[in-house]
Amino acid sequence: xxxxxxxxxxxxxxxxxxxxxxxxxxxxxxxxxxxxxxxxxxxxxxxxxxxxxxxxxxxxxxxxxxxxxxxxxxxxxxxxxxxxxxxxxxxxxxxxxxxxxxxxxxxxxxxxxxxxxxxxxxxxxxxxxxxxxxxxxxxxxxxxxxxxxxxxxxxxxxxxxxxxxxxxxxxxxxxxxxxxxxxxxxxxxxxxxxxxxxxxxxxxxxxxxxxxxxxxxxxxxxxxxxxxxxxxxxxx
Length: 236
What we know:
This protein is α/β, with parallel strands linked by helices. The protein is 31% helix and 27% strand. Helix 3 (100-106) runs parallel beside helix 6 (141-153). The longest helix is centred in the C-terminal third of the chain and has 16 residues, at 171-186. The protein has a single domain (7-233), classed as 3-Layer(aba) Sandwich (Rossmann fold), CATH 3.40.50. The mean pLDDT is 93. Strand 1 and strand 2 (21-32) form a beta hairpin. It has helices at residues 47-54, 77-80, 100-106, 119-124, 126-130, 141-153, 171-186, 198-204, 227-233, and strands at 7-18, 21-32, 36-40, 62-67, 70-71, 85-88, 159-163, 190-194, 207-212, 215-221.
């Protein structure tokens, strides 16, 4: 299958093995430039594994991954952020003993150009500027998620990957994170999102892929994520 020239990220025939388990099966996926593409599926279907493959955190058995035309499979994990990929893992993984400012500055090491924390981070998350001296571990779950996204945005990425950013977050912060994703897309950033909350996905996403047992079983514009697809692939 030929790649779409509008795709920023292309995954072709990807297979991943974990121990004795085959977790991803001949997986094909594209993320269009400027889109917010949402991966949906029941727990254990391979969504987080796919994100970790893209970031080089788990090995790929076979297949191809290309980011902005570059073969990702030969790029070391520690270099992928420098290519312009920001990643917010499930569980956030902020540094609890570091201050908000120190957490944000961690992202500067992987930036492609010199400079401090971009003003854009504080425009999107003004609460972070008020809490620069507070330790990450003292923040609420929603504030920690804002910090984790802000740290990824310090890279000034062209692709932002978010793994369940609304998990365990209070509703008002969920809405704010949705607003941020919409603003980032309007500014030209491409987003790849794993999300279980379908109303949130429908609000922020432009495209979707449904994963079932390590395979993409349905894809399309978010308006085509029908009740029938949800019942067949997402209902527990």
